[in-house]
C-alpha cells in the first residue's frame, strides 16, 4: 500500500518504506514510482499513461519522504528548486559512537566508482564536493541520534560522510559492518518545498521506523513537535 502524505492536482508527497526502490532499475524489482502511477491511475480512473515526475530519490535501504510531480509544470518548477537548493531535505539517523560532537559541518570530496562511493582528495578527477550539517538530538549507550541537513545531494552522501567521520549509520550494510537484519537507521523525516503553483512554502514530516530508532522515541517526539510549530 502506498502511504500518501499529501496530494493535490500538482503534487504528490509519499512515504517510501525501507528496501523499496524509488525508481525501477535492472533488477525489475517493484518501485515507488510505479506504485504511485498505479495509485493515481486507479484513484482518478485515468485512461492511458499517467504522467508523474520524479523530483528526487532515496537510496533503496532508506525510508522517508519523496516528492512527485503530477504535471510537467510542477516537475519543472520542483527541479528548479532542487537545483538551487530551495528544497530542504532533513534526515534522522542513528549512528555508532555516542561521543560524536553536538553539532558540526562535514565537507568531503566523493567519488562514485561503480556504485561504491568513497572519500578522495579534492584533486581526484571526477570527485564532487559533499557538504552536510548535523546536530545530535540524543545518545543511548554507544549510539547517537542525529538530525542531518544537506547542502549538496550526492549519491550515498550521508552514509559515506558519517562513516568517514568514524560514526557509521547503524545497519548500513555497505559502509558499516553490522550484521544483516534491521533496515538502515536513516530516514527522510522532513521535506520543505515551495508549492509549484500556489507559491506557498510547505513542510511535510514522516516518523522514522525501525528498531534502532525505537530507543530515541522521546527525542523524535520532541523533534517532530518542534518542527511542526
Describe the structure.
The protein has 229 residues and is an alpha+beta fold. The protein has one domain (3-228): Pseudouridine synthase (2-Layer Sandwich), CATH 3.30.2350. It is 21% helix and 34% strand. It is built from five helices and eleven strands; from the N terminus they run E-E-H-E-E-H-E-E-E-E-E-H-E-E-H-H. It has helices at 32-43, 72-83, 157-164, 211-214, 217-228, and strands at residues 3-7, 11-16, 53-54, 63-69, 88-96, 103-113, 116-119, 128-140, 143-150, 186-194, 201-205. Strands 1, 2, 3, 4, 5, 6, 7, 8, 9, 10 and 11 form an eleven-stranded mixed sheet that branches. Strand 8 and strand 9 form a beta hairpin. The mean pLDDT is 94.
Amino acid at each position: 500500500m502506498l502511504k500518501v502524505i499529501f496530494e493535490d492536482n500538482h503534487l504528490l508527497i509519499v512515504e517510501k518504506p525501507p528496501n523499496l526502490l524509488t525508481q525501477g532499475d535492472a533488477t525489475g524489482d517493484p518501485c515507488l514510482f510505479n506504485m504511485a502511477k498505479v495509485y493515481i491511475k486507479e484513484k482518478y480512473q485515468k485512461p492511458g499513461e499517467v504522467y508523474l515526475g520524479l523530483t528526487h530519490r532515496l537510496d533503496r535501504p532508506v525510508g522517508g519522504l519523496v516528492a512527485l510531480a503530477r504535471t510537467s509544470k510542477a516537475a519543472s518548477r520542483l527541479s528548479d528548486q532542487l537545483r538551487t537548493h530551495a528544497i530542504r531535505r532533513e534526515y534522522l539517523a542513528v549512528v555508532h559512537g555516542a561521543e560524536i560532537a553536538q553539532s558540526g559541518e562535514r565537507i568531503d570530496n566523493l567519488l562514485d566508482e561503480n556504485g561504491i562511493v568513497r572519500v578522495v582528495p579534492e584533486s581526484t578527477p571526477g570527485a564532487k564536493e559533499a557538504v552536510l550539517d548535523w546536530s545530535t538530538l540524543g545518545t543511548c549507550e554507544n549510539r547517537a541520534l542525529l538530525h542531518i541537513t544537506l547542502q549538496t545531494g550526492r549519491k550515498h552522501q550521508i552514509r559515506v560522510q558519517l562513516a568517514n567521520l568514524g560514526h557509521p549509520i547503524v545497519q548500513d550494510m555497505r559502509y558499516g559492518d553490522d550484521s544483516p537484519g534491521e533496515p538502515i537507521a536513516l530516514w527522510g523525516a522532513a521535506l520543505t518545498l515551495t508549492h509549484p503553483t500556489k507559491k506557498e512554502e510547505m513542510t511535510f514530516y514522516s516518523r522514522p521506523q525501525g528498531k534502532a530508532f525505537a530507543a530515541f522515541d522521546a527525542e523524535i517526539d520532541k523533534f517532530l513537535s518542534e518542527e511542526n510549530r
